[in-house]
Amino acid sequence: MPRLIGATQAVTSxxxxxxxxxxxxxxxxxxxxxxxxxxxxxxxxxxxxxxxDAGAFxxxxxxxxxxxxxxxxxxxxxxxYPIVIGAGGATSAGNSANGVASxxxxxxxxxxxxxxxxxxxxxxxxxxGGGANFADLSGGSGNTxxxxxxxxxxxxxxxxxxxxxxxxSAxGGGANAAGAAGSPAxxxxxxxxxxxxxxxxxxxxxxxxxxxxxxxNPGPGGAGGGGDGASNPLPQSGNAGTANTxxxxxxxxxxxxxxxxxxxxxxxIVVISEPEVDFKTASSMWDLxxxxxxxxxxxxx
Length: 301
Fold this sequence. Notes:
Blueprint: E1 12-16, E2 19-23, E3 27-30, E4 37-43, E5 68-74, E6 80-83, E7 91-92, E8 95-96, E9 102-104, E10 107-109, E11 196-198, E12 205-207, E13 269-274, E14 277-281, H1 288-296
Antiparallel strand pairs: 1-14, 2-13, 3-6, 4-5, 4-13, 7-8, 9-10, 11-12
């Protein structure tokens, strides 16, 4: 039978190595030639801990952790994908902000909610900010906007939902647990919610812990970069969430007429894992007889 298509080909076989790329700041991922699926970790920036510029023994709620999302995603080999790393929520005396969302390969993780303070409500976000002892007593909502699996948890609420100068403020939510309630005398801040561990880099690292609430006895930040709440002697600023973990900032501990800031939220992170891929290539076209034999042998690429 005469050759119908092209010349006889020689198959080239090879293996594309696995590669893990970590982004601590925004940039561009260019996938390897033969990659069709990646595993991602996307964590948003943590919310700022509650601040204050007035009030009687005002404690700030802990900032909520940035959203935590991980799983597989389809991609096109040899293509660029923008990577956005969300900043942590900034703070100053009397001002706190929500964290900023991170995104990669079609996945977005929300920033964490700010901790409540003065007359400012706790923020909703990847995880919600914690309630404060005088202002918004309730914590913010986590997993906002909603995704499945959930990207985070709610912030804590002040115990008894009763405003009191003797109550500590609540902790911010974390990826793996809600923030704990602030407690009345002895003025104890609630712990930040625990984050979630990931081994995408080859080592187990915990991300997205909530910030601790401020109080005479401060609430500890949640595992995964959450900042501790501020403590006595007042006034004290909250502790910042750890950079590139999405941890929430710790809430302030302040007295009458004093101004202090909560801890800033920790910035987010993106990690992309491309698997090892075995591949076969040919430089041109095959004749139909060879195509038939290759398909019959289940060796057609």
